[in-house]
Design goal:
about 20% strand, seven-stranded mixed beta sheet, 9 helices, alpha/beta, two-stranded antiparallel ribbon, globular, 9 strands
């Protein structure tokens, strides 16, 4: 689909640019328990303002009941972060959000997500920002956003109204808050900005309603990477394991058949994951000429748990 349509009389009609918000979060470098390599992850959700996501996510959180005097309001008003899910209330919110994602009749035109995993142990640090993690993150963040937009909305003219990121060390970085906007404005002719810098959102949705979507990024990235790398047994595992079991059928398909347009999840070019790099290399190495992005990964969680099989979703 491009931005030129034709009316009944054969005249060209230029479509209005697509207006979007981008929400982002990250997982800092962490050692994989099986490979002992360090990985970090970038997760983004893109919201089309023509089909807004935020109100849906809030409705799912509160089951449509936003009466603060309700006995259930406090239970549904909990902040949600994957690493902190350790009780029934947060688990139930997470379950509703995951079921929303996995139900295309609800999420198809509203939930667009891309997760990029970076094997920090295989990067040439001098080439990718040195020892400063945010320098490396900044570079891959731009690539992550650009690739996602090209897959989600091919050939479209896009206006980015806002870029939101969970508050963190990136807010204090010399370049990160404005660098992506500068670079895209110079090189991407089909992308415009109505913002001059990234806005950093608080962790709690009680301080800013938009933080609900940042929490959604955290949840989906957390459950996905836990399926990939596995989780250590703890008291919280009893609450996270059912969520991982729920998400496994989608994550398996995203990794094994990323372009499958026949899946009932309808995830192709809408809910995606990729990893970089395949191999360690230095500038000038011949393997640089090969594709270093890939999708296939072993799922440690499934390898350890023989009951981890596709459930009701296909």
């Amino acid at each position: 689909m491009n931005d030129i349509n034709v009316d009944l009389f054969g005249k060209n009609i230029k479509a209005e640019p697509l207006k979007i918000n981008i929400y982002a979060d990250e997982i800092q470098p962490k050692e994989c328990s099986t490979t002992k390599q360090k990985w970090f992850y970038i997760g983004i959700i893109v919201e089309s303002l023509a089909n807004p996501l935020l109100d849906d996510i809030v409705a799912e959180r509160y089951c449509g009941n936003i009466d603060k005097n309700s006995a259930y309001f406090i239970k549904n008003d909990r902040a949600l972060h994957w690493s902190e899910i350790s009780d029934a209330d947060t688990k139930n919110i997470a379950e509703r959000w995951l079921k929303y994602i996995m139900t295309p009749d609800k999420s198809r035109n509203k939930f667009y997500c891309y997760i990029l995993g970076i094997n920090d142990s295989l990067l040439s640090k001098d080439e990718f920002g040195g020892k400063d993690f945010t320098n490396r993150y900044n570079r891959f963040f731009r690539s992550c956003v650009l690739y996602a937009l090209k897959c989600f909305f091919p050939f479209r003219n896009i206006v980015i109204e806002n870029i939101y990121h969970e508050e963190g060390p990136q807010s204090q970085h010399e370049y990160f808050p404005w660098h992506i906007i500068n670079k895209f404005s110079e090189k991407q002719k089909n992308i415009e900005f109505n913002c001059s810098k990234i806005e950093f959102l608080p962790k709690s949705h009680r301080n800013d309603k938009k933080s609900n979507i940042v929490q959604l990024v955290d949840l989906f990235m957390g459950v996905t990477t836990s399926i990939i790398h596995g989780v250590e047994d703890s008291k919280a595992t009893e609450y996270r394991k059912p969520l991982m079991d729920l998400a496994v059928p989608l994550v398996q398909r995203m990794i094994d058949a990323p372009k499958n347009r026949n899946s009932n999840f309808q995830y192709a070019n809408r809910i995606m994951i990729a990893f970089f790099p395949k191999t360690k290399s230095e500038p000038g190495d011949r393997q640089r000429l090969t594709q270093q992005f890939f999708t296939k990964r072993d799922l440690v969680y499934c390898n350890k748990d023989q009951d981890c099989l596709p459930g009701l979703y296909f």
